[in-house]
Amino acid sequence: MRHAFAADFVQAIPDQTTSLAEILGAFSYALDLTEGQPAGHSLRACWVASRIACVLHLSGEERQTVYYATLLKDLGCSSNAARIAELYLADDRLFKHDFKLVPEGLAPTLKFVFTRTGSGHRLGTRAKAIAHILRDGTNIARDLIQTRCTRGAAIARQLRFPEAVAQAIAALDEHWDGNGKPLGQSGDSIPLAARLALLAQIVDVFHVAAGPDAAIEEVEARSGTWFDPTLVQAFRTLAQDPDFWSELDDPLLEQRVRSFEPAEQRIVIDEAWLDDIVAAFGAVIDAKSPYTSGHSCRVGAYAEAVGRRVGIAGPELRTLRRAAVLHDVGKLAISSRILEKPGKLDDDEWVEMRSHAAHTVDILARIGPLRDMAAIAGAHHERLDGHGYPLGLHDMLIARDSRIITVCDFYDALTADRPYRAAMSSEKALGIIKDEVGRAVDPACFSALEATVAAGLHA
User: Fold this and answer.
1) What are φ and ψ of residue 22, in 5° steps?
2) What are phi and psi of 342, to 5 degrees?
3) What is the torsional sign of CA 45, 47, 52, 57?
4) Contact (CB, 8 A) for 405 and 323
5) Which residues make Cβ contacts (< 8 Å) with residue 443, sequence separation at least 6?
6) Residue ranges of the domains in the chain?
Protein backbone atom coordinates (compact mmCIF):
# COMPACT_ATOMS: atom_id res chain seq x y z
CA MET A 1 0.00 0.00 0.00
CA ARG A 2 1.28 3.49 -0.82
CA HIS A 3 2.58 5.36 2.18
CA ALA A 4 0.42 8.28 3.32
CA PHE A 5 3.38 10.60 2.83
CA ALA A 6 3.15 10.05 -0.94
CA ALA A 7 -0.62 10.03 -1.25
CA ASP A 8 -0.94 13.45 -2.87
CA PHE A 9 1.54 12.86 -5.70
CA VAL A 10 0.25 13.74 -9.16
CA GLN A 11 3.25 13.02 -11.36
CA ALA A 12 7.01 13.12 -11.22
CA ILE A 13 8.86 16.10 -12.65
CA PRO A 14 9.04 15.47 -16.41
CA ASP A 15 12.41 14.01 -17.45
CA GLN A 16 13.65 14.22 -13.86
CA THR A 17 14.57 11.42 -11.50
CA THR A 18 15.09 13.81 -8.63
CA SER A 19 14.00 12.50 -5.27
CA LEU A 20 13.00 14.48 -2.22
CA ALA A 21 16.14 13.17 -0.52
CA GLU A 22 18.36 14.61 -3.26
CA ILE A 23 16.79 18.07 -3.14
CA LEU A 24 16.68 18.37 0.63
CA GLY A 25 20.14 16.89 0.99
CA ALA A 26 21.45 19.69 -1.20
CA PHE A 27 19.46 22.33 0.70
CA SER A 28 20.88 20.98 3.96
CA TYR A 29 24.18 22.64 3.04
CA ALA A 30 22.41 25.99 3.45
CA LEU A 31 21.29 24.95 6.93
CA ASP A 32 24.88 24.01 7.78
CA LEU A 33 25.99 27.51 6.81
CA THR A 34 23.42 29.08 9.11
CA GLU A 35 24.52 26.92 12.02
CA GLY A 36 28.17 27.72 11.37
CA GLN A 37 28.87 24.05 10.75
CA PRO A 38 31.32 22.63 8.20
CA ALA A 39 29.69 21.74 4.89
CA GLY A 40 27.95 18.39 5.00
CA HIS A 41 27.20 18.38 8.74
CA SER A 42 23.51 17.57 8.31
CA LEU A 43 24.29 14.85 5.78
CA ARG A 44 26.83 13.26 8.11
CA ALA A 45 24.42 13.43 11.04
CA CYS A 46 21.75 11.84 8.85
CA TRP A 47 24.16 9.04 7.96
CA VAL A 48 25.05 8.42 11.62
CA ALA A 49 21.41 8.37 12.77
CA SER A 50 20.35 6.17 9.87
CA ARG A 51 23.13 3.68 10.54
CA ILE A 52 22.09 3.47 14.20
CA ALA A 53 18.47 3.01 13.08
CA CYS A 54 19.58 -0.04 11.09
CA VAL A 55 21.39 -1.47 14.12
CA LEU A 56 18.12 -1.06 16.03
CA HIS A 57 16.19 -2.85 13.22
CA LEU A 58 13.65 -0.05 12.91
CA SER A 59 10.87 -0.35 10.34
CA GLY A 60 11.03 1.42 6.99
CA GLU A 61 8.58 4.06 8.17
CA GLU A 62 10.54 4.65 11.38
CA ARG A 63 13.81 4.86 9.45
CA GLN A 64 12.25 7.37 7.09
CA THR A 65 11.26 9.56 10.04
CA VAL A 66 14.78 9.34 11.47
CA TYR A 67 16.29 10.08 8.05
CA TYR A 68 14.35 13.26 7.33
CA ALA A 69 14.17 14.52 10.92
CA THR A 70 17.97 14.35 11.17
CA LEU A 71 18.65 15.72 7.70
CA LEU A 72 16.39 18.70 8.43
CA LYS A 73 16.99 19.04 12.17
CA ASP A 74 18.19 22.64 11.67
CA LEU A 75 15.22 23.87 9.61
CA GLY A 76 14.45 26.49 12.25
CA CYS A 77 18.04 27.57 12.87
CA SER A 78 17.79 30.89 11.02
CA SER A 79 14.90 32.07 13.21
CA ASN A 80 17.05 32.74 16.29
CA ALA A 81 20.20 33.95 14.52
CA ALA A 82 19.52 37.68 14.86
CA ARG A 83 18.51 37.27 18.50
CA ILE A 84 21.71 35.39 19.34
CA ALA A 85 23.82 38.09 17.70
CA GLU A 86 21.92 40.75 19.65
CA LEU A 87 22.03 39.02 23.04
CA TYR A 88 25.60 37.78 23.00
CA LEU A 89 27.07 40.60 20.88
CA ALA A 90 28.66 37.92 18.74
CA ASP A 91 28.79 36.43 15.28
CA ASP A 92 25.81 34.09 15.50
CA ARG A 93 27.33 31.46 13.21
CA LEU A 94 30.62 31.28 15.11
CA PHE A 95 28.81 31.38 18.45
CA LYS A 96 26.54 28.47 17.45
CA HIS A 97 29.44 26.44 16.10
CA ASP A 98 31.61 26.83 19.18
CA PHE A 99 28.76 26.38 21.64
CA LYS A 100 28.11 22.87 20.30
CA LEU A 101 31.65 21.95 21.36
CA VAL A 102 31.15 22.99 24.99
CA PRO A 103 31.32 19.95 27.31
CA GLU A 104 28.24 18.97 29.28
CA GLY A 105 27.68 20.80 32.54
CA LEU A 106 26.75 24.19 33.94
CA ALA A 107 30.32 25.35 34.66
CA PRO A 108 31.64 24.92 31.08
CA THR A 109 28.46 26.53 29.72
CA LEU A 110 28.78 29.58 31.96
CA LYS A 111 32.49 29.90 31.19
CA PHE A 112 31.73 29.88 27.46
CA VAL A 113 28.96 32.46 27.75
CA PHE A 114 30.98 34.82 29.94
CA THR A 115 34.12 34.64 27.82
CA ARG A 116 32.38 34.89 24.47
CA THR A 117 29.64 37.43 25.15
CA GLY A 118 30.65 40.79 23.75
CA SER A 119 34.20 39.71 22.95
CA GLY A 120 35.88 42.68 21.31
CA HIS A 121 33.41 45.19 22.74
CA ARG A 122 34.06 47.75 25.46
CA LEU A 123 34.03 46.50 29.03
CA GLY A 124 30.85 48.41 29.94
CA THR A 125 28.97 47.02 26.94
CA ARG A 126 30.09 43.48 27.75
CA ALA A 127 29.17 43.85 31.42
CA LYS A 128 25.68 45.05 30.54
CA ALA A 129 25.10 42.12 28.17
CA ILE A 130 26.41 39.57 30.68
CA ALA A 131 24.31 41.03 33.48
CA HIS A 132 21.20 40.69 31.32
CA ILE A 133 22.03 37.04 30.63
CA LEU A 134 22.69 36.37 34.32
CA ARG A 135 19.32 37.83 35.29
CA ASP A 136 17.28 35.82 32.82
CA GLY A 137 19.62 33.22 31.35
CA THR A 138 17.31 30.23 31.75
CA ASN A 139 14.39 31.95 30.03
CA ILE A 140 16.65 33.31 27.31
CA ALA A 141 18.02 29.87 26.48
CA ARG A 142 14.56 28.29 26.53
CA ASP A 143 13.08 30.99 24.30
CA LEU A 144 15.92 30.72 21.77
CA ILE A 145 15.52 26.96 21.53
CA GLN A 146 11.74 27.11 21.47
CA THR A 147 11.81 29.62 18.62
CA ARG A 148 14.16 27.42 16.64
CA CYS A 149 12.36 24.14 17.31
CA THR A 150 8.84 25.47 16.81
CA ARG A 151 9.81 27.21 13.59
CA GLY A 152 11.61 24.13 12.32
CA ALA A 153 8.57 21.94 12.95
CA ALA A 154 6.30 24.43 11.19
CA ILE A 155 8.51 24.45 8.10
CA ALA A 156 8.61 20.64 8.12
CA ARG A 157 4.82 20.65 7.95
CA GLN A 158 4.96 23.20 5.12
CA LEU A 159 7.24 20.73 3.32
CA ARG A 160 4.43 18.15 3.65
CA PHE A 161 6.24 15.89 6.08
CA PRO A 162 4.17 13.73 8.42
CA GLU A 163 3.66 14.91 11.97
CA ALA A 164 6.23 12.42 13.27
CA VAL A 165 9.02 14.28 11.44
CA ALA A 166 7.77 17.67 12.64
CA GLN A 167 7.53 16.48 16.23
CA ALA A 168 11.04 15.06 16.12
CA ILE A 169 12.45 18.38 14.89
CA ALA A 170 10.51 20.18 17.61
CA ALA A 171 12.07 17.92 20.27
CA LEU A 172 15.68 18.04 19.03
CA ASP A 173 17.02 19.72 22.19
CA GLU A 174 15.15 17.62 24.74
CA HIS A 175 17.39 15.42 26.93
CA TRP A 176 16.91 11.90 28.23
CA ASP A 177 17.09 13.06 31.86
CA GLY A 178 14.47 15.80 31.41
CA ASN A 179 16.90 18.71 31.63
CA GLY A 180 16.62 19.69 27.99
CA LYS A 181 14.56 22.44 26.39
CA PRO A 182 12.06 23.84 25.67
CA LEU A 183 9.57 21.44 27.32
CA GLY A 184 11.76 19.33 29.62
CA GLN A 185 10.56 16.06 28.12
CA SER A 186 12.35 12.96 29.34
CA GLY A 187 12.93 9.31 28.51
CA ASP A 188 10.68 7.62 26.01
CA SER A 189 8.36 10.64 25.88
CA ILE A 190 10.97 12.19 23.57
CA PRO A 191 10.39 10.97 20.00
CA LEU A 192 12.94 8.33 19.04
CA ALA A 193 13.92 10.25 15.91
CA ALA A 194 14.72 13.31 18.03
CA ARG A 195 16.88 11.25 20.37
CA LEU A 196 18.80 9.84 17.43
CA ALA A 197 19.17 13.20 15.71
CA LEU A 198 20.68 14.85 18.80
CA LEU A 199 23.11 11.98 19.35
CA ALA A 200 24.13 12.03 15.68
CA GLN A 201 24.67 15.78 15.85
CA ILE A 202 27.09 15.45 18.75
CA VAL A 203 28.91 12.59 17.04
CA ASP A 204 29.55 14.66 13.93
CA VAL A 205 30.45 17.89 15.70
CA PHE A 206 33.11 16.24 17.90
CA HIS A 207 34.33 13.89 15.19
CA VAL A 208 34.97 16.79 12.79
CA ALA A 209 36.61 18.87 15.52
CA ALA A 210 38.82 16.24 17.16
CA GLY A 211 38.35 12.78 15.63
CA PRO A 212 36.54 9.51 16.45
CA ASP A 213 37.89 9.13 19.99
CA ALA A 214 36.59 12.57 20.96
CA ALA A 215 33.17 11.76 19.53
CA ILE A 216 33.00 8.44 21.38
CA GLU A 217 34.15 10.04 24.63
CA GLU A 218 31.55 12.81 24.43
CA VAL A 219 28.69 10.42 23.67
CA GLU A 220 29.72 8.16 26.57
CA ALA A 221 29.93 11.16 28.91
CA ARG A 222 26.35 12.15 28.08
CA SER A 223 24.80 8.68 28.26
CA GLY A 224 21.89 8.75 30.68
CA THR A 225 21.80 12.55 30.79
CA TRP A 226 21.49 13.85 27.23
CA PHE A 227 21.25 10.47 25.54
CA ASP A 228 19.17 7.32 25.73
CA PRO A 229 21.61 4.61 26.99
CA THR A 230 20.11 2.09 24.54
CA LEU A 231 21.01 4.35 21.62
CA VAL A 232 24.49 4.89 23.05
CA GLN A 233 24.96 1.11 23.14
CA ALA A 234 23.92 0.87 19.48
CA PHE A 235 26.39 3.63 18.66
CA ARG A 236 29.15 1.71 20.48
CA THR A 237 28.54 -1.20 18.13
CA LEU A 238 28.94 1.03 15.09
CA ALA A 239 31.93 2.92 16.49
CA GLN A 240 33.97 -0.29 16.71
CA ASP A 241 33.88 -0.59 12.92
CA PRO A 242 36.68 1.47 11.27
CA ASP A 243 34.63 1.61 8.06
CA PHE A 244 31.97 3.62 9.90
CA TRP A 245 34.39 6.49 10.47
CA SER A 246 35.90 6.34 6.99
CA GLU A 247 32.39 6.54 5.53
CA LEU A 248 31.87 9.86 7.32
CA ASP A 249 34.93 11.26 5.54
CA ASP A 250 33.94 9.89 2.14
CA PRO A 251 33.76 12.67 -0.51
CA LEU A 252 30.81 10.76 -1.98
CA LEU A 253 28.88 10.82 1.28
CA GLU A 254 26.05 12.86 -0.25
CA GLN A 255 25.38 10.09 -2.76
CA ARG A 256 25.63 7.49 0.02
CA VAL A 257 23.10 9.35 2.12
CA ARG A 258 20.76 9.73 -0.84
CA SER A 259 20.86 5.99 -1.51
CA PHE A 260 20.32 5.26 2.19
CA GLU A 261 16.79 6.64 2.14
CA PRO A 262 14.60 3.59 2.87
CA ALA A 263 13.89 2.14 -0.58
CA GLU A 264 10.32 1.23 0.25
CA GLN A 265 9.64 4.84 1.25
CA ARG A 266 11.59 6.60 -1.52
CA ILE A 267 9.85 9.70 -2.83
CA VAL A 268 9.94 11.42 -6.21
CA ILE A 269 8.49 14.91 -6.20
CA ASP A 270 6.18 16.73 -8.59
CA GLU A 271 6.30 20.36 -9.74
CA ALA A 272 3.78 21.61 -7.18
CA TRP A 273 5.74 20.05 -4.34
CA LEU A 274 8.94 21.61 -5.66
CA ASP A 275 7.18 24.98 -5.49
CA ASP A 276 6.32 24.26 -1.85
CA ILE A 277 9.94 23.37 -1.12
CA VAL A 278 11.13 26.60 -2.71
CA ALA A 279 8.58 28.60 -0.69
CA ALA A 280 9.60 26.84 2.53
CA PHE A 281 13.26 27.65 2.04
CA GLY A 282 12.28 31.19 1.14
CA ALA A 283 10.80 31.33 4.64
CA VAL A 284 14.04 29.93 6.12
CA ILE A 285 15.97 32.69 4.34
CA ASP A 286 13.66 35.46 5.52
CA ALA A 287 13.72 34.24 9.12
CA LYS A 288 17.42 35.12 9.27
CA SER A 289 16.49 38.77 9.86
CA PRO A 290 13.44 40.38 11.50
CA TYR A 291 13.58 42.96 8.70
CA THR A 292 13.13 40.50 5.83
CA SER A 293 9.90 38.73 6.75
CA GLY A 294 8.12 37.93 3.50
CA HIS A 295 10.85 39.46 1.32
CA SER A 296 11.61 36.33 -0.71
CA CYS A 297 7.95 35.58 -1.38
CA ARG A 298 7.26 39.20 -2.40
CA VAL A 299 10.22 39.31 -4.77
CA GLY A 300 8.98 36.06 -6.28
CA ALA A 301 5.50 37.50 -6.80
CA TYR A 302 6.82 40.75 -8.26
CA ALA A 303 9.16 38.86 -10.58
CA GLU A 304 6.34 36.64 -11.81
CA ALA A 305 4.16 39.69 -12.56
CA VAL A 306 6.97 41.58 -14.25
CA GLY A 307 7.92 38.46 -16.20
CA ARG A 308 4.40 38.17 -17.59
CA ARG A 309 4.51 41.80 -18.74
CA VAL A 310 7.73 41.24 -20.69
CA GLY A 311 6.38 38.12 -22.37
CA ILE A 312 7.59 35.23 -20.21
CA ALA A 313 5.13 32.37 -19.82
CA GLY A 314 4.77 28.69 -19.00
CA PRO A 315 7.63 26.72 -17.40
CA GLU A 316 10.04 29.63 -17.91
CA LEU A 317 7.84 31.86 -15.75
CA ARG A 318 7.73 29.21 -13.04
CA THR A 319 11.52 28.97 -13.12
CA LEU A 320 11.79 32.76 -12.83
CA ARG A 321 9.61 32.83 -9.75
CA ARG A 322 11.60 30.05 -8.08
CA ALA A 323 14.89 31.82 -8.79
CA ALA A 324 13.46 35.06 -7.40
CA VAL A 325 12.27 33.40 -4.19
CA LEU A 326 15.70 31.82 -3.64
CA HIS A 327 17.87 34.75 -4.74
CA ASP A 328 19.02 35.47 -1.18
CA VAL A 329 19.59 31.89 -0.01
CA GLY A 330 23.28 32.78 0.25
CA LYS A 331 22.48 35.19 3.10
CA LEU A 332 22.19 32.14 5.34
CA ALA A 333 26.00 32.17 5.27
CA ILE A 334 26.25 35.77 6.48
CA SER A 335 26.60 36.78 10.11
CA SER A 336 23.53 38.45 11.56
CA ARG A 337 25.84 41.06 13.07
CA ILE A 338 26.38 42.25 9.51
CA LEU A 339 22.82 41.77 8.29
CA GLU A 340 21.44 43.70 11.26
CA LYS A 341 24.09 46.40 11.50
CA PRO A 342 22.32 49.79 11.64
CA GLY A 343 25.31 51.73 10.34
CA LYS A 344 27.68 51.60 7.40
CA LEU A 345 29.56 48.35 6.85
CA ASP A 346 33.34 48.46 7.03
CA ASP A 347 35.46 47.00 4.23
CA ASP A 348 35.68 43.48 5.69
CA GLU A 349 31.97 43.41 6.47
CA TRP A 350 31.14 44.57 2.98
CA VAL A 351 33.25 41.76 1.50
CA GLU A 352 31.32 39.23 3.58
CA MET A 353 27.97 40.77 2.68
CA ARG A 354 28.79 40.68 -1.03
CA SER A 355 29.73 37.02 -0.76
CA HIS A 356 26.07 36.06 -0.33
CA ALA A 357 25.54 36.18 -4.09
CA ALA A 358 28.30 33.62 -4.71
CA HIS A 359 26.91 31.45 -1.89
CA THR A 360 23.52 31.54 -3.63
CA VAL A 361 25.10 30.13 -6.78
CA ASP A 362 26.96 27.43 -4.85
CA ILE A 363 23.85 26.27 -2.98
CA LEU A 364 21.47 26.19 -5.94
CA ALA A 365 24.06 24.51 -8.18
CA ARG A 366 23.84 21.46 -5.91
CA ILE A 367 20.14 20.94 -6.59
CA GLY A 368 19.31 19.07 -9.80
CA PRO A 369 16.07 20.76 -10.91
CA LEU A 370 17.25 24.18 -9.69
CA ARG A 371 20.78 24.04 -11.09
CA ASP A 372 19.95 25.98 -14.25
CA MET A 373 18.71 28.93 -12.21
CA ALA A 374 21.77 29.15 -9.95
CA ALA A 375 23.61 31.73 -12.05
CA ILE A 376 20.38 33.66 -12.68
CA ALA A 377 19.58 33.98 -8.98
CA GLY A 378 23.19 34.71 -8.06
CA ALA A 379 23.40 37.62 -10.53
CA HIS A 380 20.77 39.79 -8.85
CA HIS A 381 23.43 42.32 -7.75
CA GLU A 382 25.09 42.59 -11.15
CA ARG A 383 24.74 45.97 -12.90
CA LEU A 384 24.42 46.86 -16.57
CA ASP A 385 27.48 49.13 -16.26
CA GLY A 386 29.67 46.26 -15.04
CA HIS A 387 30.10 47.58 -11.50
CA GLY A 388 27.96 44.96 -9.78
CA TYR A 389 28.93 41.73 -8.00
CA PRO A 390 29.95 38.96 -7.66
CA LEU A 391 31.39 38.80 -11.20
CA GLY A 392 31.14 42.38 -12.46
CA LEU A 393 29.19 41.28 -15.53
CA HIS A 394 28.38 43.80 -18.29
CA ASP A 395 24.90 44.14 -19.74
CA MET A 396 25.33 41.66 -22.60
CA LEU A 397 26.17 38.90 -20.10
CA ILE A 398 23.28 39.51 -17.69
CA ALA A 399 20.25 37.32 -18.40
CA ARG A 400 16.79 38.86 -18.66
CA ASP A 401 15.59 36.82 -15.68
CA SER A 402 18.43 38.21 -13.55
CA ARG A 403 17.52 41.76 -14.60
CA ILE A 404 13.93 41.14 -13.52
CA ILE A 405 14.98 39.80 -10.14
CA THR A 406 17.32 42.77 -9.68
CA VAL A 407 14.62 45.41 -10.13
CA CYS A 408 12.09 43.49 -8.00
CA ASP A 409 14.62 42.95 -5.21
CA PHE A 410 15.56 46.65 -5.37
CA TYR A 411 11.92 47.73 -5.11
CA ASP A 412 11.00 45.44 -2.23
CA ALA A 413 14.13 46.35 -0.29
CA LEU A 414 13.29 50.05 -0.54
CA THR A 415 9.63 49.62 0.43
CA ALA A 416 10.40 47.55 3.54
CA ASP A 417 11.88 48.56 6.90
CA ARG A 418 15.62 48.08 7.29
CA PRO A 419 17.91 48.38 10.36
CA TYR A 420 19.23 51.72 9.05
CA ARG A 421 15.98 53.32 7.75
CA ALA A 422 12.19 53.11 7.60
CA ALA A 423 10.27 51.79 4.60
CA MET A 424 9.84 54.16 1.65
CA SER A 425 6.64 54.89 -0.24
CA SER A 426 6.18 53.22 -3.63
CA GLU A 427 6.53 56.58 -5.35
CA LYS A 428 9.83 57.40 -3.67
CA ALA A 429 11.20 53.91 -4.27
CA LEU A 430 10.32 53.99 -7.95
CA GLY A 431 11.95 57.41 -8.24
CA ILE A 432 15.21 56.10 -6.78
CA ILE A 433 15.17 53.04 -9.05
CA LYS A 434 14.41 55.22 -12.09
CA ASP A 435 17.64 57.11 -11.48
CA GLU A 436 19.51 53.82 -11.91
CA VAL A 437 17.86 52.86 -15.21
CA GLY A 438 20.52 52.16 -17.82
CA ARG A 439 23.28 51.84 -15.21
CA ALA A 440 22.07 49.21 -12.74
CA VAL A 441 18.52 48.59 -13.93
CA ASP A 442 17.16 47.39 -17.26
CA PRO A 443 14.75 49.96 -18.82
CA ALA A 444 12.16 47.40 -20.00
CA CYS A 445 12.15 45.63 -16.64
CA PHE A 446 11.70 48.94 -14.83
CA SER A 447 8.76 49.89 -17.06
CA ALA A 448 7.16 46.52 -16.37
CA LEU A 449 7.67 47.00 -12.62
CA GLU A 450 6.09 50.46 -12.78
CA ALA A 451 3.06 49.01 -14.55
CA THR A 452 2.88 46.15 -12.02
CA VAL A 453 2.91 48.56 -9.08
CA ALA A 454 0.39 50.83 -10.77
CA ALA A 455 -1.90 47.82 -11.24
CA GLY A 456 -1.86 47.35 -7.48
CA LEU A 457 -0.03 44.04 -7.11
CA HIS A 458 0.29 43.11 -3.47
CA ALA A 459 3.00 40.48 -3.24
Assistant:
1) -65, -45
2) -80, -15
3) positive
4) yes
5) 437
6) 11-79+147-265, 271-454
Selection from 172, 179, 173, 140 nearest residue 156 by Cα: 172
pLDDT digits (tens, 9 = 90+) for 415-452: 988 777 788 999 999 999 999 999 999 999 999 999 99
Which residues neighbour 134 within 8 Å (Cβ) at sequence distance 6 or greater? Answer: none
Question: Which fold is adopted by the domain 271-454?
Answer: Hypothetical protein af1432 (1.10.3210)
The share of the chain scoring above pLDDT 90, in percent, equals: 80
* 73 has catalytic annotation: no
The domain covering 11-79+147-265 belongs, at the CATH homologous superfamily level, to Hypothetical protein af1432 (1.10.3210.10)
Provide φ and ψ at 394, rounded to 5°.
-90, 170
| pTM greater than 0.70 | yes
Cross-strand partners of 421: 418
Beta bridge partners of 456: none
Buried residues in 5-44 as b, exposed as e (16+ CB within 10 A): beeeeeeeeeeeebbbbbbbbbbbbbbbbbbbbeebbbbb
- Cα angle at 380 between 457 and 353, to 5 degrees? 115
Of the candidates 73, 331, 341, 428, the residue annotated as catalytic is 331
Low-confidence ranges of the chain (pLDDT < 50): 1-17, 459
Task: Determine contact, residues 330/358, Cβ cutoff 8 Å.
Answer: yes
Return d(Cα 51, Cα 46) in angstroms, integer.
8
Q: What CA–CA distance (Å, rounded) separates 122 from 435? A: 41
Instruction: Report which residue type is found at 83.
Output: R
- Chain segment 10-52, per-residue pLDDT in tens: 233 333 446 788 888 889 999 999 999 999 999 999 999 999 9
Asked whether this chain's domains 11-79+147-265 and 271-454 adopt the same fold, the reply is yes
Those residues with Cβ within 8 angstroms of residue 23's Cβ, 6 or more apart along the chain or in another chain: 269, 274, 277, 367, 368, 369, 370
Fill in the DSSP letter of residue 288: T
Classify burial at 98, counting beta carbons within 10 Å of its beta carbon; exposed 0-12, middle 13-18, buried 19 or more: middle
Distances from the Cα of 264 to the Cα of 4, 43, 165, 270, angstroms = 13, 20, 17, 18
Q: Which 3 state secondary structure label does DSSP give 200?
A: helix
Nearest to 373 by CA among 304, 432, 323: 323
